Amino acid sequence: MEAARESMAALVDAGLYDCAQTLGCFLVSSSPASSEAGMSMKVESLVLHGDALHGEKEFRRALSAYKQAMQYSKNIPRQATSNTRSSVTATGRSPSPNSSSLAPLNENEVKFKIALCYSALREHREALQEMEGIPSKARTLKMNLMLGKLYRISRNNRAAAVCYKECLRQCPYVFEAITALAEMGLSSKEFSLIFSQAPNRGGKAPGDSLDAQRWWNRYVEAQCCIASNDYKGGLDIYLDLMQRFPNNVHILLEIAKVEAIIGRNDEAIMNFEKARLIDPNIMTYMDEYAILLKSKSDYTKLNKLVHDMLHIDPARPETCLALAALWERKDERKALTYAEKSLRVDDRHITGYIMKGNLHLLLNRPDLAVTDFRGAQELRADLRSYQGLVRAYLALSKCKDALFTAREAMKVMHQSAKALKLVGDVHAISSSGREKARKFYESAIRLEPGFLGAALALADLHVAEGRNKDAVLLLERYLRQWADDSLHIKLAQVFAATNMLSDALSHYQSALRINPHNEAAKKGLERLEKQMKGVDPDAPEEDEENEADDVDGDQDDAELL
């Protein structure tokens, strides 16, 4: 069977796992010779069979094959292994199956493969136990990265940091380790020290190494800024890096992601579109792009994006969330099933928790939304998870919890206008807190004059206290600097409330000229036209039930697209 074993190794190396696992069934079922060489052959056949099954994503079967290999290996007399060659391959199997002196099983490599199977099955505790059985000196780069992930999942950040630092000492360009360490609070100075300890690969000239360290340090600084919620600082560094690396898709996407978090939606959309022009098949953060298109009611672009994503990879969590964004307008419950599916694919996908929480709020389930936003915060707290938690607590009338969360956001994101506005939102709920809310909104505007969210909230506060003229003056002042559809809509609502219907009509039309897809402007205009005709805009329409039936009939993704 030596020739068959050699062929199986070639099939596995070629990625022909289906053929390899079929051949493996013959190899592992053959009766092993009683000699030590025969038992070693059996062990190698089981490892090869496990590799083939792992390639086919049959993780439970692969796990069984690897464990059998480990058990058979223990039964081989130690004298036999001491007489074999000392060299061991990185694959955990001997380099030449028909050699007369077989290399001993690389147990550490097989343990790593067992851990990979457990991790794929989301049995992280068992995976961690297996990885901890590998001596630290024997761990390769991929082993340290895997162990760092597992420690982080088990919330042992200190041990995770040790593993990630070791990754960077072996290779400073393990970007996953950089992001993780930045989120765990490692400073840029500590990163620089690690970089200096990394080996100079290929004997590069000192100047080349110095140039690499410069941009690497800037990238690390950006990651540290964003991890500490200094979004402006991170954006400035990324924009600087774009001068050095124009058309860098990774940096473009990072910029767009941060802009989406802090509410710079138009800029984020523009950068996502730039990234797609450079690489039309990119999937990273495309769920964020889909959510932005949905917020702009640009369903033509959203439809095209979802169509492209389904063609590229329908199994990615980003695709599930893009589908959730597309379905939200028609069927919130179906959208929720897609958000839940994204988390079944990847239970550490933060955007999935954010989307799920927002959908639960729309479905009037703030209790479940609290759980979702907390899930996002456990992975990485950012502005959106704080905003979602505050909204959920307010919906549950838990004002103290909402205020505590908003203040926590303000502490974590000091010098953040968005966090100040969040505290103002909580105070604005009660008439007694409106004066405090006004101060927080005004502070947010002073800190970030272009923050329209604070201006709109302050206008709402003026209207609630009967100061409609102040609201109009504020909004008109902003409109002189920013031609934004949301400002026109808010002005239209203020004018409609004070029966200045022609002015309201003008601003709704202006909003639709800026953004023809704006659903709020369309609904407001429709409502206003009824008011102008003397019809009660809240009266139910006769054909409302028929329209609902039509919507229910269109429930397939293909039809929706």
Automatic annotation (TrEMBL):
Residues 94-104 have a biased composition (Low complexity). This is Anaphase-promoting complex subunit 7. Keywords: TPR repeat. It comes from Oryza glumipatula. Residues 522-536 have a biased composition (Basic and acidic residues). Gene3D superfamilies: Tetratricopeptide repeat domain. Residues 76-104, 522-561 are annotated as: Disordered. It comes from the Eukaryota. InterPro entries: TPR-like_helical_dom_sf, TPR_rpt. TPR repeats lie at residues 485-518. The keyword Zinc does not apply. Residues 538-561 have a biased composition (Acidic residues). Residues 76-93 have a biased composition (Polar residues).
